[in-house]
């Protein structure tokens, strides 16, 4: 937590600490989303696995987690990634190029919404 928020987190009360942590997660997600999108759209392979599949699988443990902060972090990053993906897809569609839709990630998020896991609070 101190790596994400710095030493200032030690001097905040509980409510301020949670607000600051969520704020920093949002900032990190906004920074990571374009990078994830670039990697997702690259046609690179990691071993026998395409990069777009690896990026989707990266989120699975966090979405399935019982920790509320892990689920929240994954939700924020996936939301920012989806926004960047959607905007870039519109531009690609105008250029007659298609992007691989993240079906695995969408199914996992839908599953966690319709059948939520019991979440632990800290």
Q: What would you note in describing this structure?
A:
By secondary structure, the chain is mainly α. The protein has one domain (2-114). Helices cover 69% and strands 3% of the residues. The protein has 5 helices and 2 strands; from the N terminus they run ααββααα. A two-stranded antiparallel sheet has the order 1-2. Strand 1 (45-46) and strand 2 (49-50) form a beta hairpin. Helix 2 runs parallel beside helix 4 and helix 3 runs parallel beside helix 5 (103-114). The longest helix has 28 residues, at 14-41.
Main attributes?
single chain, 122 residues, mainly alpha, two-stranded antiparallel ribbon, globular
- Helix content bin: 55-70%
Rg calc: 16 Å
Number of strands: 2
Q: What percent of residues are in strands? A: under 5%
Secondary-structure-derived class: mainly alpha
Structure, briefly:
By secondary structure, the protein is mostly helical.
Compile the SSE list and pairings.
Elements: H1 2-5, H2 14-41, E1 45-46, E2 49-50, H3 51-63, H4 68-94, H5 103-114
């Amino acid at each position: 937590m101190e790596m994400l928020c710095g030493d200032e987190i030690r001097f905040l009360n509980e409510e301020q600490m949670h607000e600051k942590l969520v704020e920093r997660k949002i900032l990190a997600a906004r920074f990571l989303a374009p990078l994830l999108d670039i990697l997702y759209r690259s046609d690179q392979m990691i071993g026998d696995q395409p990069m777009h599949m690896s990026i989707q699988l990266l989120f699975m443990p966090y979405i399935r987690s019982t920790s509320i902060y892990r689920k929240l972090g994954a939700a924020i990053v996936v939301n920012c990634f989806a926004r960047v993906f959607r905007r870039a897809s519109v531009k690609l569609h105008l250029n007659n190029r298609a992007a691989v839709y993240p079906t695995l990630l969408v199914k996992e998020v839908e599953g966690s919404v319709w059948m939520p896991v019991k979440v632990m609070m800290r």
